[in-house]
Amino acid sequence: MRKANLSLVPVAALALLTGCGNSPSKFPAFTQEFIETTLALSPTGATASGYHKHKGLGLDGHLDDFSAAGIEKNRATWNDLKSKLAKFDRDKLDAESKADAELIDSQIQLALLEDQEIQSWRHNPTVYVETVGNGLFVPYSVEYAPVETRWRQIISRLNEVPRLLGEAELQLVDSPTLWKNVAIEENDGTIGMLEQTFPAQVPAALRSEYDPAAKNAISAMRAFDNWLKTSLKDTGAESWRLGKEKYAKKFALVMGTDMKPEEALAKAELALTETRKEMFNLAIPMHHEMYPKHIDPVDVNLIIGETFRKINEKHPTPEAYMDEARKALNETRGYLKSHPEQLVKDPPRDNLQVIETPVFMRGSYALGGFNPAPPMEPQLGAFYWVTPIPKEWPQERIDSKLRENNIYGLRVLTIHEAIPGHYIQAEYASTIEPLSRRMLRAVYGSGVYVEGWAVYATAEMIKAGYMDNSPELQLQNLKWELRAIANTILDIKYHTMGLTDDDAMALMMGKTFQEKEEATAKVQRAKLGSCQLPTYFTGYSEWKRLRSLAEQKPGFKAGAFNERALREGALPMRTLGVLLGLQ
Ligand SMILES: [Zn+2]
Hints:
The chain is mainly alpha-helical. The protein folds into three domains: about 1-120, no CATH class; about 125-235, no CATH class; about 310-580, no CATH class. Helices cover about 65% and strands about 5% of the residues. The chain is globular, with a radius of gyration of 24 Å. Zinc ion binds next to helix 19. Zinc ion binds near residues 416, 422, 451 and 454.
């Protein structure tokens, strides 16, 4: 099979050279093939995207295939798509199709980099655990089919859990200690969901099928935990680092810019100094009022730190935490509705729910997150995840988390994750036609665009006067911007420069005013993945760059610019700039 595949490559190259490529009119069909075949490789991902059937076969009752044949099929599919893409002359495509081709190209390169060099499925057990968790949670929480149908699919997926975890044991060769520990924690979350949440919800008629399926799945999960603890080779405490060479390749593809990691690092370090200066200037009059008896110190950390000490006191109780998030959501939606020209028109649909972050995802979502409606079925529920504060935590840890998520912090979180951040972006992206283009730009959308929009939209909300121009909110948001900057520095230094945890904590707590609780969670998150943490700062810089180019054009209006950019969906920023006629 692989030999036959390899021999196709020169043929594709020849076709390109001699100009016998595919006609541009075939490109939409290719986009559709790309999205459908790649989604079908992961039934759990397909369900989450709203793609339920592939070539007549249902996907929602199955888990992903990690057998040797499954991995080989994955590889062959991406290689096949690569050679098919190469047959199109991109200069002959219309502008929107050309943008799609660029997005597809970067995704193919990323998939092949993963397949050939990074190989998470051989080293990272959370890949399997999260596949199981998501595979069960999505049919439970997203109402894409009648409730009984979805429970049948959950049961069918439960029956496949032992198969999938058996494949995991065959594929995994070794793992850093941390990835094992997180996989075990996340597995515990899924087990909790199966033992506590699901039994109360499963329709009575299916209970007799659910119980044995869940029992089998749980014992397979426990056996897998045990195997991770006792049998999987441990590569130690440091081996999660991606390394300079792989990091540079992945960074270029994920960021979609020509900027090298070292340049991004230098830019972030400069922004760190500038943002701290801005915070200092904002804090001085606040500090003066808060501490009338103090002689204002000149120390930047002291003055900003003391100002935050007062701001942090305004926090909800752990019991009122979720309600405070709901209240913040109502406020931000109201504000968006009344400020369409400065921000963007509020989209008509209202399908956003605030729920607790699922336990098995809390390893990566310490604060909260956003889970969009499936792009093919945008009318279904979108979820704003808020990670609750466990009652069993020690008081000190609870207090630290509450200080971090004071009422202003919860507002910034809500703006970022929901309105006008990720939820509004996803709503606009769900209006893209044709469907294959919408799917492509949602499923394989640029994280730089998505996270950049959320950070940029927060700054725009504040510029538009949300919360009566509250300086507390402004300072809190600058702290979030500082966090985005620190994320960039941490990711690059952790994965390419051997950064230590002590230095990481010193950066976060000593220079960016983060609470210990958050900084500790970030240390873990930085080691679980790579090239995601820099998307916030890179994306924000890119949104500001395109915005300032747009402002130079006659008749510029912020709301219209935002809407046009949102209607294109999550393209790489340089591609977006071309489509908007800005570069
Ligand atoms: Zn985000």
